[in-house]
Structures are given as C-alpha cells and as structure tokens.
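Reposting from the mailing list since nobody answered there.

I have sequence plus structure tokens for a pair of proteins and want to know whether others read the tokens the same way I do. The first protein:
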Amino acid sequence: MRTSDEIVSMLEQPNLELMNQYGVKAIFQFTQVNRDRLTKLAQWVDQNNIMVNVEKTFPLDEAGNALDYLKDIHPRGKVVLTV
C-alpha cells in the first residue's frame, strides 16, 4: 500500500512547496531516448509497474486538434496520438 503518490517530471524540477502541500514525492528525470529504453518502459507499463494517466487520444490525422486541446484545455494527463 502506498502512502503517497509519486511523480516523475521530465519537464522541470519539482516544486518542494507543492510536493509538501499535496503530499507527493516528485523527482526530475532526464533520459536520452533510445529503442532499448523505450522497449523496457513499454514492458513496465504492460506489467502495471507504471501507471500512465492518458486523458485523451486523437488519431494521427487530427494532430492539429490534439495541439489545440493541449493549448486550450491544459490537460492533467497525457494527450496521445494513435497511428
């Protein structure tokens, strides 16, 4: 059983004040992306070791709509393009 949520940010350093306010543990991670690392990440997701919050999916031909959604809605989860 987890006592707090954990967040990994790949965009910016976590804000300590916000972490304490919401009771989360957050770290900053920068990773060079390659095939082996993406394969391992996909395995972890498939094994439910990593939970991904997908808010909305768009088909690839609606990529412009996906960008508008990101700009206008400011989603809390990931916006995904499906191929």
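The second protein, same order (residues first, tokens after):
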Amino acid sequence: MPLAPAPVNRQRLHTRRVVYEGFRRDDGVFDIEGHLTDVKDHDYALLTGVRAAGDPVHDMWVRVTVGPDYLIRALEVRTDGMPYPDACDRIEPAYAKLVGASLLHGFRKTLYDTMGGTRGCSHITELLAHLPTAAIQMFAGLRREIEESGGKPFQLDRCHALETTSDTVRRYYPQWYRGAA
C-alpha cells in the first residue's frame, strides 16, 4: 500500500534512485552492483554549467565481488555523471582499499574510517553503506531459513520483528524463542 495522498498540491523537484542487483558468477563468487542517480526536474545551475532538467547530476556505479563468506574480493567504482568533472571521479581507485573487508562484521565503520569525509566521495560511500543489506537479501534466496546445521538462523535478533522474544519468533522459529521481554 503506498503512502496516503499528499494533503496539498506540490511540485516534484528532485529524484534520487538507488538500485542494487545481485549476481551469481560462474566462478563461484557473487557480484552486487549498485547504481545511484540524482536528477532534477528543472534546469539546475552549477558553477560548472547548467545541468538540463532530466540529466543526472550524479550517475554513479559500484560493483562489489564477494564470496559466500561476505568478504570483499574486488571492488569497482565508476562515476558517469558528476557536478565537478575531472574531480569527483578521481577518487574511484581509492575504494580498492576496501578489498578484504567483511560486509557482515563492522563494514560501515570500516567504510567510514577508510573512505569517509574527504577520503572519498560522499555519494559513492553512501551507496556502499547500504550494500550489506543488499548482500544479505541476495544470499537469503540461496539459503534455507533454518539451516540443516541446526544453528540459530542468521536473521534472528537483527530487527524488531525477529527479536527472539517476539511473537513472530515464537510462531515461526519456536526453538529459538526466549520468552517475552
């Protein structure tokens, strides 16, 4: 169900789109590609020139190659649209510093410590910051909700609905239910 209609007339000024796609590769690892665009619905004056309505102010891509262990094996960044040509895109190679990082254990801290602020591009860094949840969703379709090993399912205690004291866990994962909080 979408949001309720806006209570007053309004005019859209800006659209940001962020898309993540996950791919299984023939060599046994996985690629997650992220794409971020910022588009204005009106001509937009920048110091570098006017950006016509509909032309992206930002058009940025990442491809992160990970193993089933969620460790980054390779990382590629491309900036096709940027407000400062021949400046914004110069930081692309620096993101290779993230190779070896885990998407599951401290990734956002590692990302911001390594590429935050002037060490990186705020838009590329933001795009990468949401990659762990995209990876989890990609792998979720490949794994059973309850692994045959009998261990606690990965998704439990990672959100309010799946807290092990919730009715959801009591109903669907009774062996891991801890009772009401």
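Reply #1 (J.P.):
I read it the same way you do. The helical segments are 107-115, 122-129, 131-140, 167-172.
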